[in-house]
Design a protein that fits this description.
By secondary structure, the chain is an alpha/beta fold. It folds into two domains: 3-71, Tetrahydrodipicolinate-N-succinyltransferase, Chain A, domain 1, CATH 1.10.166.10; 93-253, 3 Solenoid (UDP N-Acetylglucosamine Acyltransferase, domain 1). It has helices at 3-12, 22-36, 55-67, 90-93, 258-268; strands spanning 43-45, 51-53, 71-75, 78-82, 96-97, 102-103, 108-109, 114-115, 119-120, 125-126, 131-132, 137-138, 143-144, 149-150, 155-156, 169-170, 175-176, 181-182, 187-188, 193-194, 199-200, 205-208, 214-217, 219-220, 224-235, 238-250. A hairpin with a 2-residue loop joins strand 25 and strand 26. Helix 1 packs across helix 2 and helix 2 (22-36) packs across helix 3 (55-67). The longest helix is centred in the N-terminal third of the chain and has 15 residues, at 22-36. The radius of gyration is 20 Å and the shape is globular. The mean pLDDT is 95. The structure holds coenzyme A. Coenzyme A (COA) binds next to strand 25, strand 26 and helix 5.
Length: 273
């Protein structure tokens, strides 16, 4: 049996799994090492643009929680009690980690990633040169592209269960404004900009301001500038306003929004943004 089949087998016996199960633990730790080094990932985008979830990799992560017991760690005055390890070896990986940031082992951080005091959970993938700004959180299994900026306080949701659930995907060159919440398998396309404070999930309609049409639910297509807005909705009890995400501008392919480009220029010249 290959690794994938063995993980499937252990997962079908999930209830019997515990820290003493040496064989299962060896297989699961191998998957986590491969995730940590970017040799495996939980999901990717295929040639047709669809998100493909590798369910067995997620099953390995779920097994890990069964196979690990709690351990106590002390760092100076700080004490932690957890089942999982933290990521290490950042210098070799070419990743900058500001004090206060932490990433769990089994997340992958590509060269050039900057972690401001932020958090990256297991199974997440973060592409090259992406900035995870202060208090941003990248949930388990979320897939973040290259050259992305997750601005301060952004919440990227994690999806562990069920194992076939689609994770949040942020594609290359996207800019996610401060305090946005992108959760439950929502997706932001390449080069798109989400205005500060936008909430995107698979129930929230994404409406094109130029046509008034709903283009999707929970998916902002490539090269759009979108902000949080409201739509009128009739209920038996009266008229109310529910949130929607409004596309206020379409960028041409490869174009950077002027405000986003300005941030990058300032950062490239060492000016704090
Ligand atoms: C979305 C954004 C990029 C739009 O910038 P812009 O293209 O220059 O557009 P404008 O500022 O002219 O705004 C266009 C309209 O959208 C509205 N709008 C802008 N940002 C909005 C937001 N975050 N939420 C809701 N509405 C917003 C404006 O009020 C404006 O409405 P108006 O035409 O009636 O005046 C910008 O407003 C934004 O949110 N940037 C992210 C900032 C951030 O998070 N920085 C992180 C620190 S580095």
């Amino acid at each position: 049996m290959d690794l994938e089949a063995r993980i499937g087998n252990w997962f079908s016996h999930l209830a019997e799994m515990g820290p003493d199960h040496v064989e299962a633990r060896r297989d699961v730790e191998l998957v986590i090492t491969k995730l940590d080094d970017g040799q495996l990932r939980v999901a990717d985008i295929d040639a047709t643009g669809s998100v493909v979830v590798h369910e067995w990799v997620k099953q390995a992560i779920l097994l890990l929680f069964r196979l690990r017991g709690l351990e106590r760690h002390e760092v100076g005055p700080f004490e932690y009690v957890d089942k999982l390890d933290l990521k290490t070896d950042y210098e070799r990986r070419g990743v900058r980690v500001v004090p206060g940031a932490s990433a769990r082992r089994g997340s992958y951080l590509s060269p050039g990633v900057i972690l401001m005091p932020s958090y990256v959970n297991i199974g997440a993938w973060v592409g090259a040169n992406t900035m995870v700004d202060t208090w941003a959180t990248v949930g388990s299994c979320a897939q973040i592209g290259a050259n992305v900026h997750l601005a301060g306080g952004v919440g990227i949701g994690g999806v562990l269960e069920p194992a076939n659930a689609v994770p949040v995907v942020i594609e290359d060159d996207a800019f996610i404004g401060s305090r946005c919440m992108v959760v439950e398998g929502a997706r932001v396309g390449r080069g798109s900009v989400l205005g500060a404070g936008t909430i995107l999930n698979p129930s929230i309609p994404v409406i094109d301001a130029a046509t008034g049409e709903e283009v999707s639910r929970g998916y902002v297509p490539d090269y759009c500038v979108a902000v949080m807005a409201q739509r009128r909705r009739e209920f038996a009890g009266g008229e109310f306003f529910l949130p929607c995400v409004l596309i206020i501008q379409r960028l041409s392919e490869g174009e950077r929004h002027n405000k986003v480009a300005l941030n990058e220029i300032l950062r490239d010249h060492g000016v704090a943004t």
